[in-house]
Write a structure and sequence with these properties.
- Strand 3 (99-102) and strand 4 (105-108) form a beta hairpin.
- The protein has helices at 2-18, 24-27, 32-42, 55-71, 161-166, 168-173, 179-186, 196-199, 202-209, 231-237, 245-252, 324-342, 364-371, 416-419, 421-433, 458-462, 491-510, 520-526, and strands at residues 74-75, 83-93, 99-102, 105-108, 113-115, 120-124, 126-128, 152-156, 190-194, 211-215, 226-229, 261-262, 269-273, 275-289, 300-306, 350-356, 380-386, 410-414, 438-440, 468-472.
- By secondary structure, the chain is of the alpha/beta class.
Length: 527
């Protein structure tokens, strides 16, 4: 009788396993224990917050590469290496040599004003242009009739109502031009911004404003110097003018801007921004696991996670932003996915693995990759992105900042509804066959207020027409705080997410068909 029961149980288990996809056994090599071991290094104090660029980020990259080499993952970066370099031009304001002079008064950098680190030495007239946004197609032009070329624009902080409602990308498609774009097109030489929030903390933000980093090969957002004036400098600018500094400051706190006007032509502002330049390098890590099909191996399923975080605070008892969730969690999940693919059977297509530098500085690593790809961009069929996948909402957590943290068996999935229903069908099939996580689509919209579809590295691929899915466990109280540390991570959850992404990637890589590409014009119409 016991032997019969044992045989029946074995047959029952074999039957259950027979219904599971073949890749599940590889997925289960992804374990919470291994994830913890990786993250305790990646998010340790020794790596000093993995800023871009920094020694800590370099060490994190070397750690990733050492494992890829051990598993036989091939290098897919530049010049036969595992790396793609972001070469930074770092411009830093010479504080002691930078000043503004107006009306017989001299204003020092960090006290009377702060500015982007763009060199400038000029004397110029001033023109006030409200928000400074224009839309020629709608007849909105605050610059009309004003002599802007060679002038310094004075601009209210804030945005026209329609720009806020549309969002920046859709506003640009609707014909809106920013103050920086207008300044460049119309020949203005600088912008002075009326910003009550920054005005009251000029000394505190001086260090952050005094340095500008631009990556070679990527177009900078703007080369126009932007200056935030102190109240004292604004009072000097608007002394004797039709509108006072006090009124404009009040309007910048929520009112509509005053009509545009040129200031007294005899009034000129002398600006000297002295800047020194040096070069720095940060590196993304890129590897490839070759597919099994002699034809389809030339196509790629790309899986990425940003490796960087925000570095070290200037003061405080705990100064290191460890970035355990953001994005140590995604980085180690990707490392475990890499091992599962590299040490077992291969799907038909190749797996492209990307650990990006510079996400926190404006998606720099992923932007550089799609502009200067190390494999043919047209051969990348999809991008899967893991960014902040390590936190779960705890029972009885009533903190409003944790309101939208996902549960232990839940993950936000951003992308299928927006760009590619094909991806949603495949992901749902994988999930239904395997771990049955709750795949929450709350952020999978172009119009969600958080705009998460546009805020992580997958969007660099979407901008080139490549469909993408972003996995995300939710914002929380430790986001971009020194308290984002390892002991708060749910490693069981990361394992479930990583196993699901592994299965999803496998099915995409083994499918005879590519998912439909993103039609960018459709996205723009729908926003």
């Amino acid at each position: 009788m016991k032997r019969w029961l044992s045989l029946s149980l074995t047959l029952l288990l074999l039957s259950a396993w027979a219904d599971r996809p073949l890749w599940t056994s590889r997925a289960e090599t992804i374990t919470p224990t291994d994830l913890r071991a990786h993250l305790e290094f990646i998010a340790s104090d020794a790596l000093e917050g993995r800023d871009t660029p920094s020694r800590g980020l370099d060490i994190a990259g070397m750690y990733i590469v050492s494992h890829l080499q051990r598993w036989g993952v091939k290098p897919a970066g530049e010049n036969g290496t595992y790396y793609q370099s972001l070469t930074y031009r770092v411009d830093t304001v010479n504080v002691s040599e930078s000043r503004i002079q107006l009306g017989g008064r001299s204003f020092e950098y960090g006290v009377g004003f702060v500015a982007r680190a763009v060199p400038l030495n000029t004397s110029a007239p001033l023109v006030y242009v409200g928000y400074g946004w224009s839309n020629p197609s709608k007849g909105i032009d605050p610059y009309a009739g004003l002599g802007v070329r060679g002038a310094v624009l004075v601009v209210q902080a804030g945005y026209p109502k329609e720009v806020i409602e549309l969002g920046f990308d859709a506003a640009a498609q609707a014909g809106w031009l920013s103050p920086e774009q207008n300044a460049e097109q119309k020949g203005a030489i600088a912008i002075v911004r009326i910003d009550p929030t920054d005005m009251g903390r000029i000394e505190r933000i001086a260090r952050a404003w005094s340095q500008r980093r631009a990556v070679e090969g990527l177009q900078p957002i703007s080369n126009v110097p932007v200056i935030v004036a102190s109240q004292a400098l604004l009072e000097a600018i608007f002394a004797g003018e039709p509108v006072s500094a006090a009124e404009l400051i009040q309007r910048a706190d929520g009112g509509e801007p005053a009509p545009s006007f040129a200031l007294n032509p005899d009034k000129r502002i002398a600006i000297n921004l002295s800047v020194q330049t040096q070069k720095q390098v940060a590196r993304s890590v890129i590897g490839v696991i070759e597919g099994a099909d002699p034809t389809l191996k030339h196509e790629y399923v790309s899986i990425g996670a940003h490796l960087d975080h925000v570095g070290v605070a200037r003061s405080g008892e705990d100064r290191i932003f460890n970035g355990a969730d953001d994005n140590g969690s995604g980085s180690v999940a990707l490392l475990e996915i890499a091992e599962a693919f590299a040490t077992g059977p291969r799907p038909k297509r190749s797996i492209l693995l990307l650990w990006y530098a510079g996400e926190e500085k404006g998606l720099l690593g992923s932007r550089l990759f799609v502009e200067q790809p190390t494999v043919p961009l047209q051969n990348i069929i999809v991008n899967l992105n893991l960014d902040m996948v390590g936190r779960s909402k705890l029972p009885n957590d009533n903190n409003p900042r944790n309101r939208y943290l996902s549960g232990p068996n839940e993950i936000y999935v951003i992308g299928p509804n927006v760009a590619s229903p094909d991806l949603g069908k495949i992901l749902n099939a994988v999930n239904d066959q395997y771990l049955k996580m709750t795949l929450n689509p709350m952020y999978d919209s172009l119009n969600h207020p958080e705009q998460l579809y546009f805020r992580s590295d997958h969007y660099s691929f979407v901008s080139k027409g490549i469909p993408a899915v972003f996995f995300f466990s939710g914002l929380h109280e430790d986001y971009h705080q020194v308290s984002d540390s390892v002991e708060k991570i749910d490693f069981e959850k990361i394992a479930r997410v990583a196993r699901t992404v592994f299965g999803f990637a496998w099915e995409l890589a083994d499918s005879p068909e590519r998912p439909a590409r993103v039609k960018l014009e459709d996205l723009q119409r729908r926003r």
